[in-house]
Specification:
12 strands, alpha/beta, single chain, 15 helices, about 40% helix, about 425 residues
Length: about 425
């Protein structure tokens, strides 16, 4: 059976068990023995498990386990049948964008309502495998909800660090309801991240942010499943929101591994989309085009309506730039106005998403207007979180922008209702 190890993504040193950052400062990553694997055999196995209705193979993550955690013991897997999210092709959005082919993969359909479940099933499973006494993370919301749910499923105590007053209440409610201990930090996500790293090191807890490379392995399954959904026909573009850059790292790694295994004839371009008020990676990327030695400079006070990507110091930036370069991709910045206008279109198509997810459609819209995505291109948008993750932002935006035309208040009188409806439907 193939062996995997954790190595530094920069200097290639192998890291000791439980260490995820090298002495040189770079993050570690899981390295699989791809040379020992048969690509066609793997593909047949993946497709053979498709549609499984029971057991770990019913998970949209674990049916790809040879490229995620090959030596996992099946009885240790902590799963909630995550993954298996759908592809949408809404005519209204295709018309809005003026794009010939659009596919939307909605990761908000995962058990706790976000893509984080894909990484968490693997991270928590690894924690169980290594005998962790507790698990912890810093979060803007979705990671905390997922950690709490999977920790409860595994019977492991869970601790989450969140920026006080800067997390959507629905996400906080999930975290509390699933039984995690919530530590609210006076500061932002980056302050919470600094604290959880120290707490995990000093108090012997398993850190389950995306600096943990097993989280990245689980998130790779978004790409594996997407390509399986598309019958392994490679799209031209894959566009997604970018905050801490775990998905950027995971998506590129997945594509490189599939290409090395001979399962892709070409690489799609990855496009990481940041919110303008929290866009350190975009600024770094722009500067790096002129100055290859540029370093990422953290934003001290990131601010955006897209709370899930309100991060000023993304931990996986070094991995992310490698993957953007490997796929000849791009990094974009979109305004909150562009995000919410895109969300209005997604919601209006009957699909819905939280604000951060809409950055993907806003990014596609921008690239079409700039003439970079052509009308005949196939673009995939990844939606990362469910609509109900952040209802306050949607209601507030509708009210502040006069977009609440779907809400009618009348007396309990038939004639008044009929008149209002006749006017509204017209």
């Amino acid at each position: 059976m193939a062996q995997e190890k954790i190595v530094c993504m920069r200097c290639e040193d192998e890291l000791e068990a439980g260490r995820y950052r090298c002495r040189c400062g770079a993050l570690g990553e899981v390295r699989h023995d791809l040379e020992s694997m048969n690509g066609e055999g793997l593909l047949a196995g993946f497709q053979g498990r498709r549609g499984a209705r029971s057991g770990v193979e019913a998970s949209g993550v674990w049916r790809f386990r040879e490229l995620i955690m090959p030596r996992v013991k099946m009885h240790q897997i902590v799963t909630r049948r995550e993954g298996n999210t759908r592809i949408y092709r809404p005519p209204a959005l295709v018309k809005y964008l003026g794009l010939g082919k659009l596919s939307i993969k909605h990761e908000g359909e995962n058990p706790t309502g976000s893509f984080k479940d894909r990484g968490m099933t693997v991270g928590v499973t690894r924690a169980v495998h290594e005998g962790a006494r507790a698990i912890a993370c810093a979060s803007t919301g979705n990671t905390s909800a997922s950690l709490a749910a999977y920790g409860a499923a595994a019977g492991l105590p869970a601790v989450v660090f969140v920026p006080a007053g800067k997390i959507a209440r629905a996400k906080l409610a999930q975290t509390v309801a699933y039984g995690a201990k919530v530590v609210e930090i006076d500061g932002n996500f980056d302050d919470a991240m600094n604290m959880v790293v120290k707490v995990c090191r000093e108090l012997d807890m398993a850190l389950l942010n995306s600096v943990n490379p097993w989280r990245i392995e689980g998130q790779k399954s978004i790409i594996f499943e997407l390509l399986d959904d598309l019958d392994w026909q490679v799209p031209d573009w894959i566009v997604f929101p970018a905050g801490n850059l775990g998905n950027t790292s995971a998506f590129g790694k997945a594509l490189r591994e599939l290409y090395e295994l001979g399962l892709l004839e070409r690489m799609p371009k990855l496009v990481a989309v940041q919110a303008e008020g929290a866009s350190p990676f975009f600024k770094f990327y722009q500067e790096r085009l002129e100055n290859p030695r540029a370093e990422l400079v953290a934003e001290a006070n990131p601010e955006t309506v897209a709370t899930a990507i309100r991060i000023g110091n993304p931990q996986s930036w070094e991995k992310a730039i490698r993957e953007i370069n490997a796929t000849k991709g791009m990094v974009l910045s979109v305004t909150d106005q562009e995000i919410m206008e895109a969300k209005l279109q997604i919601d209006g198509a009957g699909i819905g998403c939280e604000p951060a997810s809409a950055a993907s459609i806003a990014g596609i819209h921008q690239l079409i207007k700039r003439g970079i995505i052509g009308s005949k291109d196939h673009a995939v948008a990844i939606l990362t979180g469910h609509f109900l993750k952040d209802v306050e932002s949607a209601l507030n935006w509708h009210e502040q922008n006069g977009a609440s035309h779907n809400r009618i208040r009348v007396s309990a009188d038939f004639d008044a209702i009929a008149k209002a409806l006749d006017k509204g439907l017209a």
